[in-house]
Amino acid sequence: MSIVATPIGNLGDITLRALDTLRQADVIACEDTRHARRLLDHYDIRAQLLAVHEHNEQAAAAKLIALLAAGKRVALISDAGTPGISDPGARTVAAVRQAGFRVTPLPGPNAATAALSAAGLDDPAFHFVGFLPAKVGARRTALEGLKSIDATLVFYEAPHRIEETVTALAELLEAEREIVIARELTKLFEEIVRLPLAEAPAWLAADDNHRRGEFVLLVSAPPPREGLDAESERVLKLLLAELPVKQAAKLTSEITGVAKNDLYQRALEIKDNSPP
Ligand code: SAM
């Protein structure tokens, strides 16, 4: 089965290999058949379609496996971009692989990497989050967990939730961080702005157009951590002499109350700087 990335807006963004594969497919599994038909009509592709979505993924996977077993060529697409990335596909892929069939990725458009490529943030590490939970409490918990990750954070958001999500980011993450708001990538009204996170809610409120379309949000990595207090440093070093990094950080966190992740990062630095 071929996993085929399709455009995230501009219909020119499809690879030659994707077009060949879709043209040769006997069956194309897709999220929404009407949406897929519009896309495929544009390229004059007439394969049979089979809907695979959240609610029927298990049954649809069984049908795809039967088709593969009958020697049919099957491709999987999503509504936009790369299947399996904040889109259905993972369970189908797992089932098809489990049944012993080869799964081949055909790379192509993806909103997260498109935004990262044009953002100019110089941190090499990024952490893909996708959509944050919609409920306030769950979103807050998720952000607390993401706060200490030493990497650019990558979020997806839809227009109806963009304001509350950006407000939550500005309230819960450090004010020194920057945000890149990438809107309508590859489309007519594409816009990519970079600004201090604290200013982002006002930027969105300033113009109705700023809140329209599909969004990727990139939040730059957290500011460097301040050093540990002397007692936590002492406990960590004592435990590190006897225990692996992860365990030493965990126990020190239990003893001192300092965040485990901060202790883990410091433990790695201590290990790196200690003589072999
Ligand atoms: N599978 C897709 C991919 O590879 O990027 C993502 C699908 S997810 C259901 C849809 C979300 O991706 C949108 O709500 C938006 O956050 C982001 N997205 C998709 N197309 C976009 C675009 N052209 N510009 C900005 N964000 C986009």
Query: What's the order of the H and E elements?
Result: EHEHEHEHEHEHEHEEHEHHH
The distinct bound ligands, ions and cofactors come out as: S-adenosylmethionine
Proportion of strand residues: 15-25%
Q: What count of structural domains? A: 3
Average per-residue pLDDT, rounded, comes to 94
- Looking at the structure, the CATH topology of the largest domain is Methyltransferase, Cobalt-precorrin-4 Transmethylase, Domain 2
Helix content: 40-55%
Distance N to C terminus:
48 Å
CATH homology superfamily name of the largest domain: Tetrapyrrole methylase, C-terminal domain
SS element count, helices:
11
Largest sheet: 5 strands, parallel
* Second-tier CATH architecture of the largest domain: 2-Layer Sandwich
Low-confidence runs (pLDDT<50, min 5 residues)? none
Task: Please give the order of strands in the largest beta sheet.
Answer: 3-2-4-1-5
